Amino acid sequence: MIMNEEDLLESEKFLIHARYLFKIMNQQIMRDLKTYQVDASEMIGLVLLHCHPKGLSMTEVTNLSMTDKSMTTKVMNKLEKKGYIYRDRESSTKRNYKVYLTDLGISKAMQVENLLQRKEKCFQSNFTEEEQRILRQAWQCLLRKYI
Predict the structure, then answer these.
(1) pLDDT confidence of 47, banded at 50, 70, 90?
(2) Which of 14, 82, 94, 120 has the fewest CB atoms in 10 Å of its CB?
(3) pLDDT given for residue 110 in this prediction
(4) Strand pairing category for 56-57 and 85-89
């Protein structure tokens, strides 16, 4: 579909406003994460592993978090040092590791997920149901186009 100039301008305005809202939300989340002594990359690792209780390989963590291998290794090392994860060699290969949350990691992941849910509810409370529906559609459209 080819957009006319007016539609293109409206799309650009929407993206500028969406970026601004995302920036504000992101700043608030980063500030609040400090109280949990977790940074953004650790948050992603905790939430990913909490969604996969049977563990993930380092390659799976890398792919799902859309980061590179060295970043994944750094994050997993930090989480392991804090006692949030443990690694176990896969029995089939004896070479690769699977990463799992410890009980402490599960607790921390739940705290982080609760924080994210509270922020989402707070954000949504600023919009009517119709505006929320429009935002969801816009985000889904953006995701299809750019991811």
Answers:
(1) very high
(2) 94
(3) 96
(4) unpaired
Position 116 in a domain: yes
Q: Total structural domains in the chain?
A: 1
Q: Evaluate whether 105 touches 49 at the Cβ level (below 8 Å).
A: yes
Task: List, for residues 125-134, the tens digit of each pLDDT value.
Answer: 877 888 778 7
Residue 136: CA count within 13 A, CB half-sphere: 9
* CATH number for position 96: 1.10.10.10
Residue 52 within any structural domain of the chain? yes
- Residue pLDDT, tens place only, 19-37: 787 788 888 888 988 998 9
In a domain, 18, yes or no: no
Does 14 reside within a domain?
A: no
pTM above 0.70, yes or no: yes
Owning domain of residue 124:
23-146
